[in-house]
Amino acid sequence: MELIAGVAQQQALSPQMQQSLQLLQTPVAELRQLVAAELASNPVLEEEDLLMGSSDSGDETHPHSLAEEGRDRRGVDHDFSLQDEWRDYLPQTAARPTYSAVDEERRRFLFESQVSRTTLRNLVIDQAAGFPPEDLRLVELIAGSLDEDGYLRMPVSDLASEAQVSEAAMEAVLRKVREFDPPGVAAADLSDCLILQLSRKGEGNGLAARILRHHLPQLARHRYDEIARDLCVSVTDITAAARHIATLEPNPGRPFAVADEQGVIPDLIVILKDDGDADEGGFSVHLNEDELPRLRISNDYKELLVARGQNEELLLYLREKIKGARFFLRSLQQRQQTLLAIGNQIISRQEEFFRKGTSALKPLIMAQVADAVGLHVTTVSRAVAGKYMDTPQGLFEMRYFFTPGFQNTDGSSVSNEMVKGAIRDMVDKESPRATLSDQEIVTELEARGLKVARRTIAKYREQLGILPSHLRKCR
Hints:
Blueprint: H1 15-25, H2 28-41, E1 45-47, H3 63-67, H4 82-87, H5 101-113, H6 120-126, H7 133-144, H8 156-163, H9 167-177, H10 190-200, H11 207-214, H12 216-220, H13 224-231, H14 235-246, E2 268-272, E3 283-287, E4 295-297, H15 299-307, H16 312-349, H17 351-356, H18 366-373, H19 377-384, E5 388-391, E6 394-397, E7 405-407, E8 413-415, H20 416-429, H21 438-447, H22 454-463, H23 469-472
Parallel strand pairs: 2-5
Antiparallel strand pairs: 1-4, 2-3, 5-6, 7-8
Helix pairs in contact: 1-16, 6-7, 7-9, 8-9, 10-11, 13-14, 16-18, 18-19, 21-22
């Protein structure tokens, strides 16, 4: 063994860059707390007096109004590219360094892959360290698609379509993710989640796993005698296995869930334009400005800095605080601009949805929006996560509008939400004595010109909370 001294370059996120990432990914309800904390920690920041207006605040104002200005009809700022804005975090007085193409790519990847707080999504991505770049991209997509309980409800076929890879490639990465912590993460349903946890204990083929695979409905109803007869074991063994199953965690994402006692607050509000009507008029999207205070840098502190007194320590302190306040306001402005640009893309591409509802939802993937607004797809994913839009059709999570689709025989595309709606409609209209099997639903959809795989139907049925056909007969 020997000690060797050497020099090596290492990328690291500055506190300012971490702050910008945190602002980007934080919903407005939590953003109020971040703004309040910044107001408390930085004395040069102050709330604008709305009675006095903001004409004397110069360029140091809250970004709400600035985010609305200088936009084309796609919601993209004329003065600068959003992609550049999210990639460059330099003090206003510093000269911009020159990077090679390789260095710039490393900077971009570092910025888009780092996080500032521990969430289930972040934990999953962290465990993929060392994966090839293409596999890491798929892990990020899987992690971003997990629901608050830690389940992956989206079919693999939809994920593969979103990532533009084969289902086999997506399945291979998903198998690796399902070995990550917390045990049971990325499971398709409750049975799958609990079996993953048993497999982690080396009990994947034991009695408890067999019960979960084939007798979960009976287990839920405590019909231990039926299970015992089917598996040819004693009721005592079934009871012991049931107690063991009860020690497992049905919601792997529970420790990472953040309770919001204030309810859901939308970041964006979609309204009908003044000159339109619900059938023919267009829609516009606005930031929910009422939830955040309007900030500016206090003129008193700026004047104190300009006065240049003899107290060098005070001058240095004020200079740093003013620089930090400027960066905070700029980062907040970038967040608002990014959300507004994405919101404009959503209403442009999903306009029929806002008129007619779910049946008119079109297929849309994040890569399309990312290309349109000049951002990386992971930045779009981070920006929409956990955020909501208040629309004429109701309150929806922004991720709802991003959905893969299916091809009709006439060449048109429909979203998976429309397919789910068709499944729900068929089940609602079926006879209790002649329930439709998954294959019969496939056949019915094919008659409507829509080809959907049977296993996809099964996934959608489970997501809708619809029992298999043989259990629906017992209604």
